[in-house]
TrEMBL record:
It comes from the Bacteria. PANTHER family: LD18447P. This is Peptide chain release factor 1. The modification N5-methylglutamine is found at Q270. GO terms for molecular function: translation release factor activity, codon specific. Pfam families: PCRF, RF-1. Residues 263-279 form the Prokaryotic-type class I peptide chain release factors domain. Peptide chain release factor 1 directs the termination of translation in response to the peptide chain termination codons UAG and UAA. InterPro entries: PCRF, Pep_chain_release_fac_I, Pep_chain_release_fac_I_sf, Prokaryotic/Mito_RF, RF-1. Methylated by PrmC. Methylation increases the termination efficiency of RF1. Belongs to the prokaryotic/mitochondrial release factor family. It is found in: Cytoplasm.
Amino acid sequence: MYSYRRWIGSNNVLIVVKISKICYNLKLDNSVSEVKEMLEKLKFLEEKYKDLSMKISDPEIINKRNEWQKYVKEHAEIEPIVMKYREYTTVSKQLDEAKEMLKEKLEDDFKDMVKEEIKELTEKKEKLTEELKLLLIPKDPNDEKNVIVEIRAGAGGDEAGIFAGDLLRMYTRYAERQGWKVEIMSSNEQGVGGFKEVIFMIKGKGAYSRLKYESGVHRVQRIPVTESGGRIHTSTATVAVLPEADDIDVQINPNDVRIDVFRSSGHGGQSVNTTDSAVRLTHIPTGIVVSCQDEKSQLKNKEKAFKILKARLYDKLQAEKNAEIAEARRSQVGTGDRSERIRTYNFPQGRVTDHRINMTIYKLDSFLDGDIDEIVDALITNDQAEKLKSVQ
């Protein structure tokens, strides 16, 4: 692993993006030279894997916990590639042996058997080649992280807030289906049962890899609960999906953060409206402001606010980094442009349309109940296909 380092706002905030050094600059097509180049890199990875296997078993390195953890993580990252490469080399060897056998004088029945085996092994080798190409696509270093999801009501008044609540339920139900945990970080409710803004964390392995495609503008078309005339109304809500940032990713100088405390506003209850439990953080170099008031404890609100602040700072770095490679990003599925209208939920027709891949499904009710995998899988497949084209 190596790190992309960048200072944001002032020299007091360092953000580090960890980038996999594995398998960049590959031209992954089926020409002889390209496959040869790919196999050379895979051979290098296998040697690296052997070296890492020795290191993580070395008692001296085991005693150096941070160093050992770094090697264990890198070992785990390349293991699937190495295992697939070893399967590929085994099949290649079997195929070569079968082709050599065919050069010998064989009886017709036995020759037919060898030809059939060559056909099967050739197909298997081609399949393994494609699987290796996918494994060699540079990994998003954030894919395994938890996510912080921010949903805000957009155009449409009260109906937009109700729709924001619908999206919160959709992602909560999806997280439950995946066995992930959901924690509300901050919320600003509106009187008719929706949210002006709601921020929550989803904790689970691979959460970001599945949900990163949800960032953008979501549009709903339906007859609002608040509409008595039966007119179809169009409303929007924006969704931002941020990978959780840890202390390694973001280092914040406490002197750069102004902390204000104030009384929570809400529907009452112990400590609400009676004590200064709400917390507002202002990051002076960037002007980012985060408020949390959902917890009764000022300490817990402060802890949540700092998690959101770290995620937003980390996201700011990524946005700047992505702007530097905008041409490459435009060739891929949109995963972060919040001004992009990505999806329409049409109630009269019972359909969901994802505009990035021109995909429509007619199961709106189950989709809003968290059954979103069909579109998520299609987005991932499309993204992988575009990355394969763009890898040079």
